[in-house]
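Example: Cortex morphogenetic protein CmpA.
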Amino acid sequence: MPQWLCNQLMKAYQKKDRRQIKLLNDCWFFYRSKPSVRSFHSKTTP
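Written out as structure tokens, the predicted fold is:
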């Protein structure tokens, strides 16, 4: 997990900001679900 995201989550949990926690959680799952550029290139190169 990127450090900036971890810091944002820590702040959101401390403030008990459910909307921010949900938004950051969605960002993390979107980030994790995207295929990385490196794996994409390794699959397309012969």
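The CA atoms of residues 13 and 21 lie 7 Å apart.
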